[in-house]
Specification:
The chain is of the alpha/beta class. It is built from 16 helices and 22 strands.
Length: about 500
């Protein structure tokens, strides 16, 4: 078992911590010493995974635009080289490109220095092999090695500077060329105006080195320059301010489409020509329509909070199957891998946060690849006199959607949360008109008919934190409050959870 000190760095399948000063009450814990121990531990883990000596290993290292990135990259590089590893120093790069070094360059492993959309003072490490990102038990083992200061014997490694992003951009450009097959093959995006919002993260390359060389007008793009303080908005497609910003920029530029990335470009979102978001359920719908082409009857794995209208769109409009699973991008990816291994045709795993992994792309959650596929589809639809908006017309969208988060007050928060969910299930079975979802795989999802809220709720445990998120959706104005009021009758009898956000919601 990890000590409390080392356990603080584990964030699901990532390592995260405080890497820079500037936020009151948050002391730096990702020191050089800690980073070097973690990296040495990864080298030891990789030796065991590959059955190779450290001197035979090659590991790529990249980082996003955070202010602590270069310091941490230096510490990671020092540690790997001290173990005898050959290091490919890739500099500013996207997270998906670091995975691709294991495929394209044959690296044994890769490290990306990033904390995704978290505040500027935080940073972390993501680890990859050719099998994809490491899972939670792997991260725990690495931290156990670090805690015990277990590491490879000393060696003399080498460091080579490699700009892999040049090759990664070339792959994306070739994907667009071969997908669109325009009369001017080398410039398939001539006549398209596309706004890119990188949020001052690592995604500015997409406008300059992918779209512009293909003929696209990217003149309305914004926040392409890396700035680890993120001065304009949080680089996060789920952030309301970020989405409003890219929507406004798309309309102002009179663009055909807008795209937005998170800091390390493993997530993406889009905006149509009207300035409407293609995000969350709409993004899942577009991705499903693309992924199910050539995969008739295929299964799409999503997280648990997708809408009822999306299920109908996937199954009735597209003729696929909707497999609603758990929150957490690694959860949906692993479930898709499991289904494919069992012989189920599953071409897509996608979370409403914007993490999307296609089987054709190694089940890698890659925001740039997803946006690339959407741009190809937009260009194909134009030749038919259609738009992305026309593809989404059959998608029924809710009148209301909301998410509330209830802090769990007990130290053993998982036990407390699971107890509340179990008791709610027992309670729900006794309530007339409450229908427990038959395909529920996380928390408890309950549907309410017309006149009784006309929607559903999902109460679950957070993937990482001592929280119980509640998602509400209704097809009728005012339905969410009606559903929430019925749930309140139960939750007010529960101990160990702060339901004040629910009381505020229902007034």
């Amino acid at each position: 078992m990890l000590t409390k000190y080392w356990k603080q760095f584990k964030s699901g399948t990532d390592i995260r911590g405080v890497a820079s000063g500037g936020v009151k009450g948050e002391e730096i814990n990702l020191t050089d010493e800690v980073i070097e121990k973690m990296t040495s531990a990864f080298a030891l883990w990789l030796m065991n995974f590959t059955k190779k000596d450290a001197s035979s290993l090659t590991v790529a290292v990249g980082h996003d635009s955070r202010i602590s990135a270069r310091r941490i990259q230096a510490a990671v590089t020092r540690s790997l080289a001290a173990a005898g590893v050959h290091v490919l120093s890739c500099g500013l790069a996207s997270t998906p490109s670091m995975f691709m070094t294991t495929i394209d360059l044959g690296c044994d492993g890769a490290v990306q220095i990033t904390a995704s959309h978290h505040p500027f003072n935080r940073n972390g490490l993501k680890f990859f092999t050719k099998n994809g990102g490491l899972d939670a038990p792997d991260i725990e083992q690495i931290l156990l090695y670090a805690e015990k200061d277990e590491k490879p014997a000393a060696g003399t490694g080498t460091v080579e500077t490699v700009n892999y992003m040049v090759r990664y951009c070339e792959i994306l450009r070739e994907k667009i060329k071969s997908g669109v097959v325009a009369a001017d093959y080398e410039h398939p995006l001539t006549g398209f105006k596309i706004v890119v919002d990188a949020g001052n993260g690592a995604g500015g390359f997409y406008a300059r080195n992918v779209l512009a060389p293909l003929g696209a007008d990217v003149s309305g793009s914004q926040f392409l320059e890396p700035d680890g303080y993120f001065p304009n908005h949080i680089p996060n497609p789920e952030n309301e301010a970020a989405m409003k910003s890219v929507c406004a920029a798309t309309v102002a530029a009179k663009a055909d489409m807008g795209v937005i990335f998170d800091t390390d470009v493993d997530r993406g979102g889009a905006v149509d020509a009207k300035g409407d978001e293609i995000n969350r359920n709409r993004l899942v719908a577009i991705a499903s329509a693309i992924a199910l082409e050539g995969n008739a009857g295929g299964t799409v794995v999503t997280d648990s909070i997708t809408s009822s209208g999306l299920k109908s769109y996937i199954e009735e409009t597209l003729g696929g199957k909707h497999h609603r699973f758990k929150r957490g991008y690694k959860n949906v990816i692993n479930e898709a891998l499991r289904l494919n291994n069992e012989g189920v045709n599953c071409p897509l795993a996608i979370e409403t946060s914007g993490h999307a992994a296609l089987r054709e792309n190694y089940f890698l959650d890659d925001g740039a690849y997803l946006v690339t596929k959407i741009i190809i589809k937009m260009a194909q639809l134009r030749t038919q006199g259609k738009t992305l908006e026309s593809l989404l017309e059959p998608l029924a969208e809710p009148a209301e959607a909301a998410e509330l988060r209830f802090p769990i007050l007990e130290e053993n928060f998982r036990e407390c949360g699971n107890r509340i969910i179990f008791d709610l299930e027992t309670y729900a079975k006794q309530q007339p008109g409450w229908q427990i979802a038959p395909d529920n795989r996380e928390g408890i999802r309950i549907s309410f008919g017309k006149g009784n809220g006309d929607g559903w709720l999902l109460l679950r445990l957070s993937v990482h934190d001592p929280l119980m998120p509640l998602n509400l959706e209704s097809d009728t104005a005012g339905g969410n409050k009606r559903i929430a009021s019925q749930l309140y009758t139960f939750l007010r009898t529960c101990s160990g959870v702060d339901i004040s956000p629910l009381e505020k919601f229902i007034g």
